[in-house]
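Record copied across here:
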Amino acid sequence: MTPSRIVSIDWLVAHQHDANVVVVDVRPRDYYDAGHIPGARNVDIYPLKILDSDPGAIDQWTHTMQSAFRTLGIRNADHVVFYEDISGTSAARGVWLMEALSIGHGSILDGGLAAWHAAGNPISDEPVAVTPSELTVTLKHELLATAPGILDDLRDNDGSRIIDTRNQLEWIQGTIPTSTHLDWAAHLDADGRLRPLEELRAMYENLELAHDDNIVTFCASGYRAAHTWLVLSELGYGNVRNYAPSWGEWIRRSDVPIELPAES
């Protein structure tokens, strides 16, 4: 049985030492050095952005991500559990990357390091030696939305659903036409854990999403959008793409429309 994209603290305690389980701390290096889950490897995922829908930029980003995962020692058979302080967007981005780059299975640690520590589990400041791998990645284009693809969808009026995962202020200042707004932070409870799946399902049912809809998620740089991709995928929505260059690219382009929600 394939593990969930969301794993609990108890699950990690039970499986942390399984041969194919790799724990990755996606916080900046100084946070990792100050204290991490014992045995966790480290990569700061946030700077590893894709900024443009240009095929050359996508190829270069894919190569960069392959190098980053090789440095982490990740192999295709590994189950990688990503974490940060809470159930955050960089950890979710790691899960999306595992699938988008055909690497294998990824999960987010629900509640992150805060929940791990609150449960009485140990924290380490010991460095972890990693043997680089020879991993080869292959991009699944069906999981990555691009600006030209979104433009085609808008022109064809094909019924694709676009979810703007940014906050309310960002949303009202401009969005991609036809998009629906749901702030990614609504996924979390006050402790930084993911809300129960039944609550998350109700949120998206209220948006009248169908499980066979073609869905695009976006934010400013594809991290909050990855969080929404993760939640929707875990809820069984099968056709979800992360527009990873996101608003950071869209706002720079001269060939795309921008909609003010008050005008829609």
